[in-house]
Amino acid sequence: TALRLKFKYDSVTEADELLEHLQPPSTLRFLRVDGWNGERFPQWGIRQLPNLVSLYIRNCERCRSILPFSRLPHIKSLYVGECEELDLWDVKDEDGDAGKGNSVNSSTWQCLKSLELLQLSGVSKLRSLPSVIGGLSALQELSILDCDNLKTLPESIGSLSQLRHLYLNGCSK
């Protein structure tokens, strides 16, 4: 089951409410959200997406928070692009805890045991990857494109034994 949501409007006040009222089936495997103007993903995402294997988020310029990774046990593919306000390492777990920068809540990211593909594009708040990324044991491809403020990659990236492709482009620093 797949769901693709593409938003083409500028009304910020309705964005959060609109997405909140959409309730996809729990069997949903692929979710793509493009152009949404809300700040936080709705509560249904926290409770009802146990079978999600692919999450694609693009052009969600005001989005500050995505789904808690602890609720995505089967996620294999994660794409985040052109989300200027999103601090990807400040992802709240199901208890509302969060990490910041390199002190990211490691248990939150360790939930991504099935993640094979991680693509980040135009995420301007991305300055570094946390060392816990080395614990993503199934990761086969890591793409980081046009993340202008990216300065460093952690040494733990060498621990990614399944990593076959590492793409870095447009990361000027």
TrEMBL record:
It comes from Opuntia streptacantha. Residues 3-83 form the R13L1/DRL21-like LRR repeat region domain. It comes from the Eukaryota. SUPFAM superfamilies: RNI-like. This is R13L1/DRL21-like LRR repeat region domain-containing protein. InterPro entries: LRR_dom_sf, LRR_R13L1-DRL21. Pfam families: LRR_R13L1-DRL21. PANTHER family: LEUCINE-RICH REPEAT-CONTAINING PROTEIN 57, OS09G0267800 PROTEIN.
